[in-house]
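Researcher: Structure prediction, please.
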Amino acid sequence: MEIQLSSEITKLIPHFKLGVIEYKNITIGDSPQMLRGRLQLFQESIYFDLEGKSVTDLPGIQEWRKIFKLIGKDPNRYRHSAEALYRRVHKQNYLSSVQSAIDLNNFFSLKYQVPVGIYDLDLLQGPVKVRIGMEGEEYIGLNGRKNSAAHLLLTSDQKGPFGTPFVDSERTAVTNTTKNALQIVYIRPSTDCTNAHKMTESLMNMFVQIHGGEASYQIIGCL
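Model: Predicted structure follows.
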């Protein structure tokens, strides 16, 4: 899948990086007990670690809030998905198992304090562009609402926006019938390229271990 990065983003965020993973011939379904158990235990650990602290003090949460503000989106009104997950855990409103792909996304998002999106590759009409949303752009999100894409960092195809670090589009949602998928990891710009590769490869390997199939990845923003 061809991924095009807007020059506007690289000017605003000089060390911008994305992990992009393509999966083929995967099988998505109920999460194995291993993943469900790790997700639950990790949330409990985070809850106790956050006692007496603010979610916004966490370095990954703070870094992505600054990016939202930089591109013109109020981070108090539009909270990136990793922050939204942490706020749920902070309230002891733990995430329950949805399905294997979503559960793994949530686990890695919590682990690295970064937004992670996954999309049905067969529902995309390329090329995929990574850019900043324009005034008037909207999409129906997984939250069931019409969301403004203006001033949001987003991924789009020929049909328009389908992914953001805020909430993803309903149009390209991964389901149990998905066989091919595209995963986007919104890596913290402060992460060096060596660790960006390690993190993305780790996610890819765990995903394939659970879902089978074949995978390849690239890091946009690293040579």
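Model: The radius of gyration is 16 Å.
Researcher: Thanks, that helps.
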